Amino acid sequence: MTPEIAIMGHPNEGKSSVLSTLAEDDSVRVSPTPGETTRCRTFPVVIDGREVLRFTDTPGFQNPARVLSMLRQLSGDSGNIIRRFREQVKNIPELSDDRELLLPVERGAGIIYVVDGSRPVRNVDREEMEILRLTGRPRMAIINCKDQGERYLQEWKDEFRKAFNSNRVFNAHRATYAERILLLTALQSIDQDWQPVLGQVITAFQRDWTARNRATADHIIAMLNDCLRYRLTVDAGDQSAAGRREEELVRQFNQNLAEIEKRTHQQIRSLYRHHIFDYRLPPRSILREDLFNDRTWQVLGLSKKQLAIIGGIGGAAVGVGLDAAHAGLSMGVYAALGGAIGALGALLGGETISANASIMGIKLGGQQLQIGPVNSINLLFVLLNRALLFYSHTINWAHGRRDYDTGGAAEGPAPDQMGFTRNWSPGRIRICTAYFRGLQQDGGNDALRRESDLRQLLEEVLLEISQRE
Questions:
Q1: Cis before 93? omega within 30
Q2: CA-to-CA distance for 469 and 401, rounded, in angstroms?
Q3: What is the reported pLDDT for 363?
Q4: Sheet with 232-235: strands ordered across
Q5: Domain extents in the chain
Q6: Cis status of the peptide bond prior to 373, with omega within 30 of 0
């Protein structure tokens, strides 16, 4: 039997936000207007085509004092107290919401009781807690700290100890993946009979997350392959228009690579079940900058120490990395994209290029003008850092959060000012360098092995990011 958890509480305390975050479902209606939820609605958690858990959103308590009085009168009788209460009040309109919210409890659901921890405990809260105690169902209390306030936390915890098996502080708007797993793990403690089935659910969640991280790594690898091998060829045209043709070629090249990156980010977003809403990136996030913006390359490219590591490895990547990092930055980035070329060699003559054609003052007649593939390893690190930053923002934007249009910033453990790779070990940098050189050598078993090494590295890094709190 699939375990069911009913999310219960007073209106406008954050029940729907908690449910949306736990179920990873951004279709849950979240509204600041009290009483918006009037009917129970169940949200199944499906993994590999199998429903492993279901959460049920319930209406808020409306008449707890009256409900409690009636339940106390029934408590001395034998049988299911909740079933008999719901039968008794089915023709009392003013108790319709209270009758509805106890429906999942009647069918055996466990309870998560949600309160707003930024306010003090009231008598009405104590009445609701006593109602839930009388149900006899396994139950946990969640203090949803909407405003990060801790003034009343101890008061709430003291009250919860009287009526609940367990309680936790949980911010539904800021909860990371690691915090969601911890909450599900804590649910095991509320009833001994639930431990085996919830243990299986948690294992399924973790396996599913590993599979999604593996798919994310595949998408990033595919993006790197496409971008680092990409080339664009056009007719060189008349010599008098050469400058304009080069400028347009670079612009189109930049745009096409940016589109590949954007498509990859959307694939990552979909993997983590952000289907309906589109959150805003943090106002100062480097992801708001263009892929080929000077600041992007300065922040997310290689550090001097990493360049020294790559220099020790040797190969074609050394000189081009130095060019992008140490030239005047605008010139370095432009060269990496095929503008001034120099050591990068990104702008190449076509099949019939004449031997005396110069790189800067191109005289190609009716021949082909080609840009790409980019020979700068810095592009690999820029793309990689941006993908990891996007991943971090995506997994740490809780599904119960709805401040999309108010400039809300996606928060999470993202080193947005320097990039993830700035603190990588020499071993990790070498894996990236070997992969880049494998692309330049264009295929073969060695290139496949290096791609496999990079994929394994990415899976390790994605797991590290997701386990941070």
A1: no
A2: 17
A3: 34
A4: 232-235, 368-371, 347-349
A5: 4-173, 212-467
A6: yes
Which pTM was predicted? 0.75
Tokens of 272: 């983590």
What's the sign of the alpha-carbon dihedral 332, 338, 340, 343? Answer: positive
Tokens 């209406």, located at residue: 59
CA dihedral (99, 103, 109, 114) in degrees, to 10, reads -40
Structure tokens at 263: 């498509």
Express each pLDDT in 303-356 by its tens digit.
767 776 676 655 433 333 333 333 333 333 443 443 323 222 333 333 322 222
| 8 A C-beta contact, residue 278 and residue 404 | yes
Token pair for 299: 């922040």
Give CA angle at 253 (250, 254), nearest 5°.
Answer: 85
The secondary element (H helix, E strand) that includes residue 112 is strand 110-116
DSSP run (H or E) holding 305:
helix 304-313
Cα-based distances in Å from 97 to 6, 43, 58, 222: 15, 19, 9, 51
- Report which of 283, 288, 266 is spatially closest to residue 409, judged by C-alpha positions: 283
Helices and strands: H and E segment counts in the chain: 17, 9
Rounded distance between C-alpha atoms, residue 21 and residue 25, angstroms: 7
Residue spans of the chain under pLDDT 50 = 315-366, 406-416
- Tell me: the pLDDT tens digits for 349-399? 333 222 222 222 233 344 677 788 888 888 999 999 999 999 988 887 766
| Beta-strand relationship, 4-9 and 110-116 | parallel
pLDDT score recorded for residue 134: 92
CATH code assigned to 4-173 = 3.40.50.300
Return the pLDDT at 346.
31
